[in-house]
Specification:
globular; Rossmann fold; single chain; 10 helices; alpha/beta; 8-stranded mixed β-sheet
């Protein structure tokens, strides 16, 4: 299905939903947008007054969230359409956007944010070395293969993903490149947790039988907010049930 952002500010070119990046302002995409936004908001609280690079910043909404707290934020993305859109849409003191490959980023800065992109990278280890050299701390996230892909599959059907990781595989990827790595798991909370429990109780049999699937989800999905997700520190077994992993990496 073809989706394009609607009702953008004057002079801001809308972006198409391609599956490679997440967009705000697209109702059908709201679940994924809020899932990513929850992590950006959690990170932003820890970056007050710092100089930050948001690598592979895409549409730019995340860099704008970080700029609410950080003193200086640069959003870096190689895509020309995304760069033009972000530069025109998100304008505030201390926020700027640069077009470039994340593999070429040098810093220096106080923190690097690199969310939901390492699974797209051909040589993630080399990029981790570059990130560690650029900043003393990095926030790097990726989806959990165990909850994204079908059971037993090596990866989901997302054509942009080169590799997807379990918690153990993700830790193994990052550990050689940073002095310390802490993994957090993102989980459903609020109404999404209630929905999750309803599915376990048989909701997926009820809504088709009542013929309310489309009207229900046409309202439910746009109503999802960032507060319907929660980041938790947990042991490896609990991490296996997470939606996404957020690695806090210290150089």
């Amino acid at each position: 299905m073809h989706y394009v952002q609607q009702d953008q500010p004057a002079g801001v070119p809308p972006l198409e939903l391609t599956g490679e990046r997440t967009l705000p302002d697209v109702p059908a995409e709201n679940y994924w947008y809020r899932r990513h936004l929850a992590v950006y908001e959690w990170i932003a609280e820890r970056l007050r007054g710092l100089r930050v690079a948001d690598l592979a910043c895409g549409e730019g909404y995340g860099a704008a969230v970080l700029a609410r707290e950080a003193s200086d934020v640069v959003g870096v993305d190689a895509n020309p359409e995304a760069h033009e859109h972000a530069s025109r849409r998100y304008t505030r003191p201390g926020l700027r956007f640069e077009r470039g490959l994340v593999e070429d980023f040098e810093g220096p800065c106080d923190a690097v944010v690199f969310l939901q992109t390492i699974e797209h990278v051909q040589e993630p280890g080399a990029l981790c070395d570059r990130i560690a050299a650029a900043a003393p701390v990095a926030y790097i996230s990726t989806p959990n293969r165990l909850t994204l892909a079908p059971p037993g599959a090596e990866r989901s059907g997302n054509p942009w993903h080169l590799r997807e990781y379990t918690a153990a595989e993700y830790r193994e990827l990052l550990a050689p490149h940073f002095a310390r790595v802490e993994l957090l798991g993102l989980h459903h909370a609020g109404k999404l947790r209630v929905h999750e429990l309803a599915i376990r109780a048989g909701w997926d049999r009820v809504h088709p039988a009542l013929r309310i699937t489309k009207p229900f989800y046409d309202r439910f999905v746009p109503a999802i907010s960032a507060s319907d997700f929660a980041l938790r520190r947990e042991d490896e077994a609990d991490l296996d049930r997470a939606l996404d992993f957020l690695a806090v990496c210290h150089a």
